[in-house]
Amino acid sequence: MSAEGHDHAQDHEHEHHHKDTFITKYIFSIDHKMISKQYLITGIIMGVIGVMMSMLFRLQLAWPEESFKIFNLLLGDKFAPNGVMANDIYLALVTIHGTIMVFFVLTAGLSGTFSNLLIPLQIGARDMASGFLNMISYWLFFLSSVIMLCSLFVEAGPASAGWTIYPPLSALPQAIPGSGAGMTLWLVSMAIFIASSLMGSLNYIVTVINLRTKGMSMTRLPLTIWAFFVTAIIGVISFPVLLSAALLLIFDRSFGTSFFLSDIYIAGEVLHYQGGSPVLFEHLFWFLGHPEVYIIILPALGITSEIIATNSRKPIFGYRAMIMSILAIAFLSTIVWGHHMFISGMNPFLGSVFTFTTLLIAIPSAVKAFNYITTLWKGNLQLNPAMLFSIGLVSTFITGGLTGIILGDSTLDINVHDTYFVVAHFHLVMGISALYGMFAGIYHWYPKMFGRMLNKNLGYIHFWVTAVCAYGVFFPMHFIGLAGLPRRYYTNTNFPLFDDLQNVNVLITVFAIVGGVFQLVFLFNFFSSIFYGKKAVQNPWKSNTLEWTTPVEHIHGNWPGEIPEVHRWAYDYSNPGHDVDFVPQNVPMKEGEVVLHH
Q1: What are the b/e assignments for 517-526, b being 16+ CB within 10 Å?
Q2: Which of 94, 182, 320, 576 is deepest in the core (most CB within 10 A)?
Q3: Is the dihedral of CA 148, 153, 154, 159 positive or negative?
Q4: What are the phi and psi torsion angles at 270 (to 5°)?
């Protein structure tokens, strides 16, 4: 662009900036920074609802058939007569809790927030490839969140077939109370959510490929961008499969087809369905469901790479190995889905194939863990809240991953399948690790998002209580799972075998409630700091990536003048040829400077 054209564009941008009304700036915004805040705040609200649900069903598990006023208050007389939780609503709470946390908090809260915020800023772009498509993807996400919440208020209750919505419970409207209108709303909500995810993912991919600034080669990209880029590719490959499964389920429910139904009897009545297979649904669901685990965890790992390098004041260890491990995880994640189906009557030979591919994925995961530990080793560690959450992620990723080896082996898995052992495993490796990544990202990039700093001391309280309570909840679950306690049971009082485990359930619930309540410290810190936090400086963490070269005050277009040119990779920390311990990417190479390459 000529200088004259450039000035004209700047004037136009300046003029456009002043014309923003409240609605165009905060609601129907096409600015990626505002859309990232919309995703984050919507994700936080959904997270509060998801955590409240888990606290309700934990109360039921710890003190089954006890009367609680809060049950009556929140669930009403129909689902909690005399304050005692009904079994239908217990299953519904578990289902909607899982759905909200996996899709609406962790997928949207991580990819939606941080891909939107960081991709244009870190690659040196004015905005996303399509601001309009970006806005539409957020509003579809918002619409799907609203429909999911509306399903809580239908007469028969929300969907209650588990977050995996296996047929026939999800395919027959008359199967259980939660199979009616609540299930239909669940499917509609998920279809809209998938449309939103696909639009977002395509936008992220095109932006990374086409809009990198001069000098920003693929091997100079921060690992955050690699993680978001590969996550978007996995999403584009696997989400349409879940969409097809949801549409076929809607056909089965509403139009009399039988894709997933065969030879069904209800109360002695023979239904007319034949020829379908519920196992087909399992294949379709888990073909998304397992890559989904990595769609959630990869952005968190990317964020952690950035924060650990910045706060260790050291170059990230094994940059290219980290990229290769992200690519290997992405590839392997699409060929391991069968390990969720070891006891579905699968051919044992096929089970051994899935065991092999599942155990292979431990290799790139271990590469990431070892590289984090090596980056931390002998670093000049700055233990701020973002760094603590990143180190916490490495811890839970390792502890959760170790139990994955047991579950990935078909012969061992049969013993603990569908027990609390599985619940403990995936909550640690995917739920808690991804949440830690999200919290780390919020603490690190909050100054970039809101121009203010979070309160550090409240951040420390938030981290330590969350870390202790997370292990307090999920560590004991491994043991009750090994003892055979099945998941999703409303109460275990009918089985004298499990009486001795009731005290453990009480302990888990106490940790869950304390951990849940202490998230209020984070919420207070987050929302009060927007207005009253200390004003942020331009580069508070002395970081090298391009987002810290933009002014603190947001402008649409990110940089007021020329977009900076990139001369080096993102991890030039403690470079012996420089006086300061960080060298931003836009600083030209000195004469004779050796490239500290990766």
Answers
A1: ebbebbeebb
A2: 182
A3: positive
A4: -90, 120
pLDDT score of 5 more than 70: no
569 burial class (0-12, 13-18, 19+ CB within 10 angstroms)? buried
Phi-psi domain of 42 (left: phi exceeds 0; alpha: psi -120 through 50; beta: other): alpha
What does DSSP say about strands 265-266 and 269-270: parallel, antiparallel, or unpaired?
antiparallel
Asked if the peptide bond before residue 168 counts as cis, ω within 30 degrees of 0, the response is yes
Q: Is the pLDDT of residue 1 over 50?
A: no
Number of residues in the chain: 598
Looking at residue 530, what is its pLDDT? 96
Rounded CA-CA distance 584/339 in Å is: 44
C-alpha separations of 196 from 73, 139, 143, 190, 566 in Å: 34, 8, 10, 10, 32
Is 385 in a helix, a strand, or coil? helix
Task: Please state the separation of Cα 23 from the chain's center in Å.
Answer: 28
Quick: pLDDT tens for 194-253.
Answer: 999 999 999 999 999 999 999 999 999 999 999 999 999 999 999 999 999 999 999 999
Instruction: Look at phi and psi of residue 341 and say left if phi exceeds 0, alpha if psi is from -120 to 50, else beta.
Output: alpha
What would the pLDDT profile of 457-478 be if each residue is shown by its tens digit?
Answer: 999 999 999 999 999 999 999 9
Structure tokens at 319: 């940059």
162 in Cβ contact with 94 (< 8 Å): yes
The rounded distance, in Å, linking the Cα atoms of 505 and 61 is 7
Q: How many CA atoms lie within 13 A of 301 on its CB side?
A: 32
Extract the tokens encoding 544.
């090298």
Burial of 531 (0-12, 13-18, 19+ CB in 10 A): exposed
CA 121 – CA 99 distance, rounded (Å) = 31
H or E element, residue 266:
strand 265-266
